[in-house]
Design goal:
438 residues, Rossmann fold, alpha/beta, 3 domains, Beta-Lactamase, 39% helix
């Protein structure tokens, strides 16, 4: 039974929901009229100034009509919100724009017309109101976003139910629809507004002093490094921080979507960012990561960086690492540093070259110097838990030693085995151990 003193609050919430739905419907209608005018009027373009002018003109027409009919006009706050909603629909991501504007958001998860899950990292998640009224509305919204994809229109329909694209602000959008999923679902991963430095990760506890010393020396020593971890463990953040210690080098990055952002934030380096491209609506024009890695080698790089290796590009990456571009790096999905070698072997076996297990082990043993594993604790903290040096190969096995280990819930780790061989020599020349982060 509802208490009497709760009734005004419930009525207010209901009125707010009704007004929000009305504003959303009006915004969609006005956005449709603006889009139609941009399409049908020669010379019209969807730049912010022109769209704002059209929206203001339509809102003035509505206000005059309401005045003539004697009906109440909108409150100034509602009109301002309606104007922004229309601009978001025509120029941006519609109702998703408001969520992306929330400070500190890392991931946004939308499933149909359900409430939206907003992930702030470190285990903090919030439920926000739904951004669409029906599942079909979500599909239509993503189709509009895909049509304005940077570079070229992307397809999202029953014949192409998977979508992965970069948004104008640099975020990565992944979407699926019915046919491969029970309901349409969207995930948006947003990069941090400020790129974290290795010192920031150290002060946050991701690295202790020993791991910090080891990894900074590894970058200076130009050791080929693979960063491993689970989804959302912080692999890209760590890779970006490692590369952020560099200056005055020519770096070629190869990614599906431009997540690393070194070309925007690494001012003291010469960065060329390459991005893979899917086939167009006609099924042609695909540019694979493997092709881009090979192209990168012809661009005189000091280092080749593959944002994430998970397919045929693995062989091209390993070849790049073993052909003189020392200091190259990549990330890979794995549950431990030891599992990385099995994942690399599987990707090489799936590539068109069909490398044997022994040939793959030999290539990995020659190309990779270090594997760095990052894990996530129950409280959401990200911690570097393992550093493994590659010694070489024997038959179908890659021979490695774990030189650093840390439990995810412990404040510090231990160097359990001093790096040896070529890796140890190069680290020593780079000043390891003992510089610290002060």
């Amino acid at each position: 039974m509802t208490a009497t003193n709760d009734l005004p609050r419930l009525a207010s919430a209901a009125d707010t929901g009704t007004r929000e739905n009305s504003l959303r419907a009006d915004a969609l209608a006005l956005a449709g009229r603006v889009t139609e005018q941009l399409i049908t009027t020669p010379g019209e373009t969807a730049d912010a100034d022109r769209v704002t002018l059209l929206v203001n003109r339509l809102l003035e027409e509505q206000a005059r009509t309401a005045l003539v009919q004697g009906s109440g006009g909108r409150a100034p706050a509602d009109e301002a919100r309606l104007r922004q909603m229309v601009l978001d629909h025509v120029l941006g991501l519609g109702p998703l724009e408001e969520l992306l504007a929330v400070p500190e958001v890392e991931n946004i998860h939308v499933t149909g017309s359900d409430p939206v899950i907003v992930d702030f990292g470190a285990g903090r998640r919030e439920r926000h109101p739904a951004v669409v009224e029906t599942d079909a509305d979500l599909v239509a919204l993503i189709q509009r976003i895909a049509a304005r994809a940077p570079g070229a229109e992307r397809r999202f329909d029953t014949a192409a139910p998977l979508l992965s694209m970069e948004l104008p602000g640099g975020e990565r959008l992944s979407a699926v629809m019915t046919g491969v999923a029970a309901r349409p679902s969207v995930t948006i991963r947003r990069h941090p507004a400020r790129h974290l430095r290795l010192k920031d990760l150290a002060h946050a506890g991701t690295l202790d002093l020993q791991a910090y010393d080891l990894l900074t020396a590894a970058v200076r020593a130009r050791l080929n490094t693979v960063v491993s971890g689970a989804t959302n463990a912080g692999k890209t953040t760590l890779l970006r921080a490692l590369l952020g210690t560099l200056a005055h080098e020519r770096i070629i990055t190869v990614e599906d979507s431009l997540e690393l952002g070194l070309h925007r934030h690494l001012a003291d380096a010469d960065v060329v960012a390459l991005q893979g491209r899917p086939a167009n609506i006609e099924g042609v024009g695909e540019v694979t990561l493997a092709e881009l890695v090979r192209a990168a080698l012809r661009m005189c790089p000091d280092r080749v960086i593959v944002g994430e290796t998970r397919g045929p590009e693995t062989i091209a990456l390993l070849n790049a690492m073993s052909m003189g571009t020392d200091g190259s790096m990549s990330t890979i999905h794995a549950s431990s540093s030891a599992q990385v070698f099995a994942k690399l072997a599987a990707y090489c076996a799936q590539a068109p070259e069909r490398m044997s297990a022994s040939a793959t082990a030999s290539l990995v043993g020659t190309a990779v110097h270090l594997v760095v594993h990052i894990d996530t604790g129950e409280d959401g903290r990200r911690v570097v838990t393992s550093v493994r040096e590659v010694v070489g190969s024997e038959g179908e096995q890659v021979i490695s030693n774990e030189v650093y280990v840390r439990e995810v819930d412990e404040p510090a780790g231990t160097v359990v085995c001093a790096p040896g061989g070529v890796v140890g020599q190069r680290l020593a020349r780079a000043g390891y151990p003992g510089r610290g982060w002060a």
